[in-house]
Amino acid sequence: MSDNKKKKPQKLKARLPRGFVDRSAADIRATEEMVAKIKAVYENYGFDPVETPLFEYTDALGKFLPDQDRPNEGVFSLTDDDDQWMSLRYDLTAPLARHVAENFNDIQLPYRTYRAGYVFRNEKPGPGRFRQFMQFDADVVGAPGVQTDAEMCMMMADTMEALGIPRGDYVIRVNNRKVLDGVLEAIGLGGEENAAQRLTVLRAIDKLDKFGSEGVKLLLGEGRKDESGDFTKGAGLNQDQIYTVLMGVGVVEDTTDTYPASQTYADGIGELMTIETIARSCGYNEDRIKIDPSVVRGLEYYTGPVYEAELTFDVTNEKGEKVVFGSVGGGGRYDGLVSRFMGQPVPATGFSIGVSRLMTALKNLGKLGASEVTEPVLVTVMDGDAEAMGRYQKMTQELRKAGIRAEMYQGNWKKFGNQLKYADRRGCPIAIIQGGDERAAGVVQIKDLIEGKRLSGEIEDNAEWREARVAQETVPEAELVEKVRAMLEAQAEDRRR
């Protein structure tokens, strides 16, 4: 026998790519429940849905990409058959800017739109940090006034409460990039030539809630080494510059009572005061919408007000420490993003909710799972001939037509015990049974599996079990749907008690 005949074909190894997850039915349903509540708030504010594709041309994304042959840092990229680079979107805002610019003559401004979808980051995965995750955005394009930013903050607050997050467990924190830009001008980082260093500074400040002031000082200076030994290069500021930046974001107190002599800074402060006035006049007080100079947002395209939705209750992290849950979404004004395509000013503002992170928060609060989906009623199979199968399938279809989730057993029907094991593992609430005797009498047995499981703990031996006919009723075939519905309603009522 040759060696080739002896060799078994090598099995393909099933493995999930790092930074990606498979989603369960419970996770999908919880997401759908949450997204429906968010959508209802957005619709109430007069927003309409739009959808853009997962792929965009890389230059349209507007991300700072390294100067290399393959623009694949931060984004996942490939070349099209015409040698143009395409990338999976890393957020939902840059694709919206492209959509607006491409369809500008057909769009009614101001354009109020929302969309939910997956985004992709080609970054090092870690605990709670994934390469694919869902965002839910709302944006207004073509509205230049900060009253729109104030309304977006109010909509974020309303969204938190619509999801069941009580007042006091969240706050919408607001700042203005113009305030930060004024501070950066004051330390000599104005002008296009310093754009990359400014971005490094902004991203360092954006880590305040994660690393604290000492960690941010390191990131503003030479850099910071994390617990794994990985080193993140810093912004390279000197001690005086670091102090001015931390003073500008409210981390250290301003002992000199001086402010940057910058019109940009003054404009930013004025806009924040306007947002505060509008919010207060509508009853959104500091416990819901709060001016906070430490809010930065890490993306480079923000040009004015920036805001974050932060959950303020404590959770236990992977180290067993009590920590504030933190940000679940944010956004701001990005007046330059659409303008890149247009050659004319096009104001825009919007925010994004991190769906997976917010869902984790709602689970912590016990706010998900209110809309229950029951597992299907199982129609069991006692005979395998075509005529019998037709009868069982007809019962299943009658239940479905009545709006009752149902399935007919599709495995090896000859071992009836396996069917009941399947129903138990599946969590089926009811099993329908009809053998030859029941068929001849024109009846079916309806077995309440939920009640049966409960009662099984109270019955001590098999003889008592058989005698009790636990949670099982025999009814005429014509009453099948009516009886099943009544049994399901009784089970639902028990769950609510």
**On the 0-100 scale, what is the average pLDDT?**
86
CATH architecture of the largest domain: 2-Layer Sandwich
Q: Tally the structural domains.
A: 2
Helix percentage: 25-40%
Q: What spatial form do the alpha-carbon principal axes imply? A: elongated
CATH class of the largest domain: Alpha Beta
Radius of gyration: 30 Å
Task: Sketch the major β-sheet.
Answer: 8 strands, mixed
CATH level-3 fold name of the largest domain: BirA Bifunctional Protein, domain 2
Overview of the molecule:
The protein is elongated, with a radius of gyration of 30 Å. It has an eight-stranded mixed β-sheet. A five-stranded mixed β-sheet has the order 15-14-16-17-18. It has two domains: 25-54 and 89-365, Bira Bifunctional Protein, Domain 2 (BirA Bifunctional Protein, domain 2, 2-Layer Sandwich); 377-496, Anticodon-binding domain (Rossmann fold, 3-Layer(aba) Sandwich), CATH 3.40.50. Helices cover 40% and strands 20% of the residues. Helix 2 (25-44) packs across helix 5 (146-162), helix 5 (146-162) packs across helix 10 (263-281) and helix 7 (195-205) crosses helix 8. It is of the alpha+beta class and 497 residues long. Strand 11 (305-316) and strand 12 form a beta hairpin. The termini are far apart. It has helices spanning 3-6, 25-44, 58-61, 93-102, 146-162, 177-186, 195-205, 208-220, 239-248, 263-281, 339-342, 355-365, 386-401, 416-426, 436-441, 449-456, 462-468, 480-496; strands at residues 48-49, 55-57, 77-79, 85-88, 111-120, 132-141, 170-176, 223-225, 231-233, 289-291, 305-316, 322-333, 348-354, 377-379, 406-408, 430-433, 443-448, 472-476. It is found in: Cytoplasm. Its EC number is 6.1.1.21. Residues 32-376 form the Aminoacyl-transfer RNA synthetases class-II family profile domain. This is Histidine--tRNA ligase.
